[in-house]
C-alpha cells in the first residue's frame, strides 16, 4: 500500500490550526456585564445586621450628595453614600481621599501603606461610616464624645480595608471589611461589604 506523503504533510500543517480553533470555540464565553439598575447599592454585614442600601443620599434641603468624584479636593476625593429605606433612616458612606481615579490601577487595595498613591505621591486613605444622625438625642453633639449612634472606621488607623475592583463607565465597584466604631467605643465588625455606584464627576 502506497502512503500519500503529500496528504500527510497537509494534515500535519492543518492539525495545529484545527486544535487552536477547537480550544477557542470550547472556551466559555465571557460573562455579560451586570446591568446598572436604579441607584446601585452599598451592602454588607454590619455586626449582626445585613444591610442593603439603595436610596440616593440627600441633604436636609433635598439635594443629592455622596455620589461623586472631585479631583480638586483632598488630592482627589471619591465619595459614595446610600440611604436606607424608610423607616430605616441610617446611611452608609464610603470616602477615599488622595485618589487619582483616571490612573487608579484595578484592582486597588486601600489599606495603610499598601494603598496606591496619587499624582502628588500621597497615599490614598479612606473611611466607611454607618450613620444614624436621627437617633442622636437632643443635646448630644453628633460625633462628639457621647455619640453612640454614628459608626466610623478608617483604612489607615482602624485597619479597615476598601478595595476598588472596577471603574468602567464611572460605575465604581468594590468591597470593604473591618471594624467601625462610635466615639463612645461601640464596635461593629463589617464583613462581605460590597458597593456598586455610578458616580458624577466634578470639575
UniProtKB/TrEMBL annotation:
Keywords tagged on the record: Signal
Signal peptide positions on this chain: 1-26
Superkingdom per UniProt: Bacteria
Name of the protein this chain belongs to: Uncharacterized protein
Amino acid at each position: 500500500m502506497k502512503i500519500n506523503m503529500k496528504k500527510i504533510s497537509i494534515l500535519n500543517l492543518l492539525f495545529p490550526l484545527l486544535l487552536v480553533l477547537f480550544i477557542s470555540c470550547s472556551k466559555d464565553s465571557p460573562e455579560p456585564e451586570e446591568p446598572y439598575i436604579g441607584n446601585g447599592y452599598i451592602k454588607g454585614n454590619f455586626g449582626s445586621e445585613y444591610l442593603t442600601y439603595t436610596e440616593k443620599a440627600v441633604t436636609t434641603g433635598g439635594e443629592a450628595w455622596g455620589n461623586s468624584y472631585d479631583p480638586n479636593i483632598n488630592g482627589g476625593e471619591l465619595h459614595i453614600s446610600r440611604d436606607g429605606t424608610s423607616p430605616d433612616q441610617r446611611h452608609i458612606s464610603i470616602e477615599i481621599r488622595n485618589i487619582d481615579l483616571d490612573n487608579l490601577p484595578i484592582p486597588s487595595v486601600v489599606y495603610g501603606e499598601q494603598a496606591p498613591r496619587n499624582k502628588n505621591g500621597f497615599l490614598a486613605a479612606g473611611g466607611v461610616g454607618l450613620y444614624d444622625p436621627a437617633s442622636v438625642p437632643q443635646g448630644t453633639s453628633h460625633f462628639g464624645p457621647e455619640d453612640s449612634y454614628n459608626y466610623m472606621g478608617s483604612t489607615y488607623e482602624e485597619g479597615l480595608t476598601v478595595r476598588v475592583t472596577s471603574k468602567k463607565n464611572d460605575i465604581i465597584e468594590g468591597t470593604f471589611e473591618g471594624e467601625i466604631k462610635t466615639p463612645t467605643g461601640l464596635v461593629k465588625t463589617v464583613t462581605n461589604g460590597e458597593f456598586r455606584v455610578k458616580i458624577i464627576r466634578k470639575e
